[in-house]
Amino acid sequence: MRIKLSVNSEKCRKKAMQVAVVADGVTSVAMEGEFQDELVVVGDGVDTASLIMALRKKACHVTLETLEEVKKPQKKPQVEEKSVTPHCCIAQCPVVSNEQPRPEVYRIVHDSYGPTTGCLVM
């Protein structure tokens, strides 16, 4: 929304900015115009009537110039890059490194106490 300030003084501009910034739903406030006499307020769900009344009460006389809905530019759907699925699971894939593969050594241990089918209580 664009609000025209009737008094062109630094005090009025500063007070108007302070009032507009604390209003509910306001995301940004800026001064524009040839004489910096227009207050541009951007926000979501801003109560225009209460903001105008608060500005008139606390800052100076103001008039509502324009009120328009700012549409956000729609985002284009991002094209996902095709990911290459591995041909084997991670656990089976060899580790790529500059080291030579080391042979795995297994030690066979014989149970001298008897059969290895389970735990026996002596």
Q: What multimeric state do the chains show?
A: single chain
Percentage of residues assigned to helices? 10-25%
The helix tally amounts to 2
Number of strands: 4
Structural class: alpha+beta
| Radius of gyration (Å) | 37 Å
**Low-pLDDT windows of residues:** none
InterPro entries: HIPP47/16
Protein name: Copper transport protein family
Q: How does the SSE layout of this entry go?
A:
Layout: E1 2-5, H1 10-21, E2 26-32, E3 38-43, H2 48-58, E4 62-66
Antiparallel strand pairs: 1-3, 1-4, 2-3
Helix pairs in contact: 1-2
Written description of the protein model:
Helices cover about 20% and strands about 20% of the residues. The chain has two helices and four strands; from the N terminus they run βαββαβ. It has a four-stranded antiparallel beta sheet, with helices on one face. Strand 2 (about 25-30) and strand 3 (about 40-45) form a beta hairpin. The longest helix is centred in the N-terminal third of the chain and has 12 residues, at about 10-20. The chain is elongated and about 100 Å long. The mean pLDDT is about 75. This is Copper transport protein family.
Short description:
This protein has helices at 10-21, 48-58, and strands spanning 2-5, 26-32, 38-43, 62-66.
Task: Please tag this protein with its features.
single chain, 122 residues, alpha+beta, four-stranded antiparallel β-sheet, 2 helices, 4 strands, 18% strand
